Give the backbone structure.
Amino acid sequence: MNLAIDIGNTYTKIAVFKRDELLHAEQYQEVDATIINNFLHDHPVKRAIISSVKKENAGWQTLLAEKMPLIYFNRGMTKGIVNHYLTPETLGLDRLAAVIGARYLYPGKSSLIIDGGTCITYDWVDAGGDYFGGSISPGLNMRYKALNNYTAGLPLISADETFNVNYGNDTTTAIRSGVQNGIKYELKGFTESYIKEGQELNILLSGGDSIFFDTLLKNSIFAPYIKIEPYLVLKGLNAAIQNNND
């Protein structure tokens, strides 16, 4: 069994895999030794892999390394893809892991990976495993917070999955229209730009906002191509540790 840990900007996601099968996954705002020990108590994990967007290491990582072989995911672990990114040293590890996960889950097919977390990232890997890059834009909650932080009078509000009109008739609904419709049209625009006529394509929605993004796209022409993969980064880390072992 493998333990995969994705340390993001907001949450840390932890999953246990039995080879390719995802057995259990949780996410936390803060991780400590107790959480790690509970995972190890409940599952006979033999090795672990960590991907982190943060530079500092927490004490629980030292604890984990004392208990089993621990691999820190890095930009050299690209088996299965050809990375054409011009500055690979600046490529986010979570983006790279998601690309590896897409290639591992759907070999021989092109995939557009849309990861909705703190930021929204768009990454494309073609049917031959070539990865050239993608796009990064502010995430759903970041947009709401920015409107509140950088203005004197706009309130901080949250997303509403039932909001589906084109314009608002008060300040709250006007903000929702701008943020949520803005993301909807962004999703559609990027997706349309990547689709090639006659090409087999997957649109993989990942991250914490993947279900919400699916709602935004459910009535679009792209709906037949969409697959929900909320744990794609973790699955990519699991694929990387298996590739490394092989």
About this structure: The chain is about 35% helix and 25% strand. The two ends are 15 Å apart (CA to CA).
